[in-house]
């Protein structure tokens, strides 16, 4: 089923769950919104803020909203008490709301409730001057009042709401506001009226198991006579597949129904099949009330010491933590944002998401049900917890709101010490399905339900935990602040989890950089220093490099082939890492492509041939070989591109392999030899040696052997100088000599130390060849050579290699071989201006790279494999000293690059090497490293014609 079909079904379901009252029969719940349904459009209410910005007078405010984003009050980050010390005081303004509304006269005689989906924080409600009920305490929870006796039907009514940003209950502030996230004030989720007939059912809970057993529990209200409660079970085409009923006596308050459905389609993240239960309360032929609930048949088991099982199959969570967030509106979202986030998670090949650190909007959970994600639904509590008195009604509210979502597999009781263990039993009391309750924690020894969720263990401590008796499922790991963590170190960590019996998978921290548009600071996006930029995507969901690395590492169609073997037979080793899907349900497509040349104004490749191939029948967890069924001439093209699609026709991942080495890719690019060119001209002074050919000149400094001057074929100077410099090891210059050869002029610089050979050759075509060799011993962050070039002169770059995102030693996944192009930008990952991909960084497997500058262009190429190019000054992770350190110079040609650590890695002495084998430094044994580079200063001549730009078509997707 495609995502579009899922969304159509979801839409029909939501119409049944949330009908507009004008279209709803009197025997059903009817809804009238008093606010907007989300952050657009909203409804204006009268508003008075008691302190801070725009305070002391009545005006209007959009509802729902966080009032700071409407220009009222003051901002606080939850950890401001640490930043500003003992004299700090949280902003504690109050917001006074007024709104006039009319209740339909037809509602007279019905029960009417006012419902708040979320209000920060203490909320007092009055209707027509009368208090609706006790003040609600707790920001992220649905609450409601029966206001039937306070309404004037068919007339104007006045709603008054007082919202206190800080709670009068200390434990509510401790759990919700002394936290590592932005804290706000205001009615941030919708407000509406709901009306029922006098006799009705509510709090409908469903427990539907994988074996087809179905139990429904409902609270029945105000029954004046004997009635019958009937549940019809419908598939989403509307067909009734089962019915169960029970007699209900007058005065009863709770009833249960049960039946068994034969061979239901089971709900999993891979097969998110939903059903509906249509519940009818009737007396004789008369229907008193009818409602519909959506659910799925599935069974969750925690088998101690074995794993987490869904429908009898062990599953491992591939997830991240997700805050409810949007930069302009804070925690007030809309349906399109909810959908965008679910689609991002699915695009990363994730199957799970943890709600951090509070229950989300109902719409997000509906999408997880429909599109397929396992959910950890979390009670707020960031390192401090609710008291039992304050927390009990909040747990009840959370469970009663979310209990029928099949996507929710665990309840999280707080976060990192924010767990009141007395509340565990409250979850169990109200949840008909008795889901396991877990304790996300940052210290060992706090396991619950047989699951250890300890946070931020390194690779080697994870190995030890996984060999213990409990299931290990870290609810936070590989902290993704800046460009650290996330996809960096994940390849090793995920293989460890995937192959361990007791692993339950894990959840990366976190999805989104929580940057808020500061309405008090000219609408800058503020991430509160290093506190909030923890995401795999930016505030507006800009995709960072780790996003794509995760997509490859988490791919359920697992292919490890990095380069084609010399005797490639057209078959690729493939592993099925789905839990429930046979690969016969998926499909594959190959393309034979040629890459564009540097002279081509466009980037990318041109598909010459493509074909859809037969999918192998391969059960979950099995391995086999995929026969690409390539044509005989496949080696005549530059590369093979293999795309894999899931049963819903969504791209899972795309792999690209060269059909030959870099020398083949440089055919038509390099032209070092030419018979009809004049000999290279040589000019020499006491301190310099200059070579000129085809209007290109290069000058060497005789005192240090460095390239000291360049003039391009456009006649202008190019400031590419001061190299080669060895970035690691020793090199003492001992002399420079030159001699002519039949095909050019050779310049040899000699050194003592680790740099063994530096040999330049100027060809008559203007190409400058550099051959070098060095030998190093020890553990080093990087190896290779550097040159200098002013970064501010650079306009952009185009290259053939892995891209478009930069790489780290422990984050090579997620990039693809192609011709990429990127304009110079100053993006520091997870900070404004969030322009991705970053221009600066290490770029992998480069065949050629063209730099476009204000002085003209120059091209660098290598026929050797595994060349990394470092572009200018950058860092990956903020710390006392930005990490990792950089090589000397501005542009480097490297054979080894450094790994990157994580935020918490720096704070707790968890250096990158503790994240696994790929995160260790480069181990050098003294063996020689040799490489050839070619330089062309200007735009090289070419016989090939630029290829036209070809826009992708629908056929390119399937």
UniProtKB/TrEMBL annotation:
Occurrences of domain Glycosyl hydrolases family 2 sugar binding (ranges): 59-197
Residue ranges annotated for the Beta galactosidase small chain/ domain, each copy included: 756-856
Leader peptide range in chain numbering: 1-22
InterPro entries, alphabetized: B-gal_small/dom_5, Bact_Beta-galactosidase, Beta-gal/glucu_dom_sf, Gal_mutarotase_sf_dom, Galactose-bd-like_sf, GH, GH-type_carb-bd, Glyco_hydro_2
Domain Glycoside hydrolase family 2 catalytic: 301-522
Keyword Aminoacyl-tRNA synthetase: no
GO molecular function, one term: hydrolase activity
Enzyme Commission number(s) of this protein: 3.2.1.23
Cross-referenced SUPFAM superfamilies: (Trans)glycosidases (SSF51445), beta-Galactosidase/glucuronidase domain (SSF49303), Galactose mutarotase-like (SSF74650), Galactose-binding domain-like (SSF49785)
Domain annotation Glycoside hydrolase family 2 immunoglobulin-like beta-sandwich: ranges: 208-298
Subunit details: Monomer.
Xref: PANTHER family: BETA-GALACTOSIDASE (PTHR46323:SF2)
Name of this protein: beta-galactosidase
Organism: Hymenobacter negativus
């Amino acid at each position: 089923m495609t995502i579009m079909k899922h969304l159509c079904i979801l839409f029909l379901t939501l119409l049944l769950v949330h009908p507009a009252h004008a279209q709803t029969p009197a025997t059903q719940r009817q809804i009238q919104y008093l606010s907007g349904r989300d952050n657009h459009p909203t409804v204006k209410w009268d508003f008075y803020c008691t302190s801070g910005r725009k305070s002391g007078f009545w005006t209007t405010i959009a509802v729902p909203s966080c009032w700071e984003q409407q220009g009222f009050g003051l901002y606080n980050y939850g950890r401001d008490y640490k930043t500003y010390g003992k004299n700090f005081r949280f902003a504690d303004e109050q917001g006074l709301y007024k709104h006039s509304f009319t209740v339909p006269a037809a509602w007279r005689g019905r029960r009417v409730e006012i419902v708040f989906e979320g209000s920060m924080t203490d909320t007092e409600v009055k209707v027509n001057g009368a208090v609706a009920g006790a003040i609600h305490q707790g920001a992220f929870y649905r609450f409601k009042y029966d206001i039937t006796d306070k309404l004037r039907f068919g007339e104007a009514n006045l709603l008054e709401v007082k919202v206190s940003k800080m709670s009068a209950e200390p434990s509510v502030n401790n759990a919700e506001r002394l936290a590592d996230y932005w804290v706000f004030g205001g009615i941030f989720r919708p407000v509406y009226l709901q009306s029922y007939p006098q006799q009705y059912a509510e709090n409908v809970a469903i427990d539907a198991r994988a074996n087809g057993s179905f139990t429904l529990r409902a609270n029945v209200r105000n029954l004046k006579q004997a009635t019958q409660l009937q549940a019809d079970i419908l598939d989403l085409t509307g067909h009734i597949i089962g019915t169960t009923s029970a007699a209900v006596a007058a005065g009863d308050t709770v009833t249960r129904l049960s039946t068994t459905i034969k061979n239901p389609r089971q709900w999993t993240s891979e097969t998110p099949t939903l059903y509906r239960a249509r519940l009818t309360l009737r007396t004789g032929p008369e229907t008193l009330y009818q409602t519909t609930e959506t659910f799925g048949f599935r069974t969750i088991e925690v088998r101690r010491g074995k794993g987490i099982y869904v429908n009898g199959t062990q599953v491992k969570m591939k997830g991240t933590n997700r805050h409810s967030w949007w930069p302009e509106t804070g925690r007030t979202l809309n349906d399109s944002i909810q959908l965008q986030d679910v689609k991002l998670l699915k695009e990363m090949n994730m199957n799970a998401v943890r709600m951090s650190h509070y229950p989300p909007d109902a719409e997000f959970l509906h999408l997880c049900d429909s599109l397929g994600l396992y959910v950890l639904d979390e009670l707020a509590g960031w390192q401090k917890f609710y008291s039992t008195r304050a927390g009990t009604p909040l747990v009840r509210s959370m469970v009663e709101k979310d209990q029928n979502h099949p996507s929710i597999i665990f309840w999280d009781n707080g976060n990192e010490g924010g767990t009141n263990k007395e509340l565990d039993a409250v979850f169990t009391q109200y949840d008909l399905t008795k889901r396991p309750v877990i304790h996300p924690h940052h210290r060992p020894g706090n396991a619950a339900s047989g699951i250890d969720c300890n946070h931020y263990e390194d690779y080697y401590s994870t190995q030890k935990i996984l060999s213990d008796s409990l299931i290990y499922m870290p609810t936070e790991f590989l902290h993704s602040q800046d460009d650290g963590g996330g996809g960096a170190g994940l390849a090793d960590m995920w293989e460890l989890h995937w192959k361990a019996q007791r692993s339950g998978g894990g959840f990366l921290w976190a999805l989104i950089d929580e940057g808020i548009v500061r309405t008090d600071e000219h609408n800058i996006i503020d991430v509160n220093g290093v506190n909030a930029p923890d995401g795999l995507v930016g505030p507006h969901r800009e995709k960072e490099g780790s996003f794509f690395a995760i997509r490859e590492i988490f791919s359920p169609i697992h292919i490890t082939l990095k380069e084609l073997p010399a005797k490639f037979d057209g078959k690729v080793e493939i592993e099925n890492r789905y839990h429930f899907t046979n690969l016969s349900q998926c499909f594959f497509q190959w393309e034979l492509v040629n890459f564009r040349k540097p002279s081509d104004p466009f980037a990318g490749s041109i598909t010459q041939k493509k074909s859809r191939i037969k999918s192998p029948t391969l059960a979950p967890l099995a391995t086999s070989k995929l026969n690409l069924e390539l044509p005989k001439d496949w080696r005549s093209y530059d590369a093979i591109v293999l795309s894999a699609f899931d049963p819903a026709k969504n791209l899972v991942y795309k792999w690209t392999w060269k059909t030959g080495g870099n020398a083949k890719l440089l055919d038509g690019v390099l032209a070092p030899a030419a018979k009809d060119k004049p000999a290279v001209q040589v000019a020499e002074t006491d301190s310099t040696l200059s070579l000129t050919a085809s209007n290109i000149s290069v000058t060497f400094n005789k005192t240090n052997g460095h390239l000291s001057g360049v003039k391009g074929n456009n006649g202008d100077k190019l400031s590419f100088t001061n190299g080669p410099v060895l970035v690691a090891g020793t090199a003492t210059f001992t002399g420079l000599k030159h001699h002519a050869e039949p095909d050019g002029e050779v310049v040899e610089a000699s050194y003592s130390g680790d740099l063994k050979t530096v040999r330049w050759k100027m060809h008559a075509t203007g190409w400058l060849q550099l051959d070098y060799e060095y030998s190093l011993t020890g553990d080093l962050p990087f190896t290779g050579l550097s040159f200098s070039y002013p970064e501010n002169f650079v306009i952009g770059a185009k290259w053939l290699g892995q891209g478009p995102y930069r790489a780290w030693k422990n984050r090579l996944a997620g990039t693809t071989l192609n011709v990429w192009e990127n304009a110079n930008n100053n993006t520091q990952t997870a900070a404004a201006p969030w322009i991705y991909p970053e221009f600066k960084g290490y770029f992998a497997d480069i065949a050629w790279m063209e730099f476009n500058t204000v002085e003209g262009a120059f091209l660098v190429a290598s026929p050797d494999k595994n060349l990394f190019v470092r572009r200018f000054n950058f860092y990956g992770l903020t710390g006392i000293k930005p990490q990792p350190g950089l090589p000397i110079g501005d542009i480097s040609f490297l054979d080894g690059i450094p790994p990157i650590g994580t935020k918490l890695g720096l704070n707790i002495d968890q250096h990158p090497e503790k994240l696994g084998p790929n995160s260790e430094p480069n181990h050098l044994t003294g063996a020689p490293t040799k490489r050839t580079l070619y330089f062309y200063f200007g735009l090289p001549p070419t016989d090939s014609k630029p290829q036209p730009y070809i826009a992708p078509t629908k056929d390119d997707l399937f």
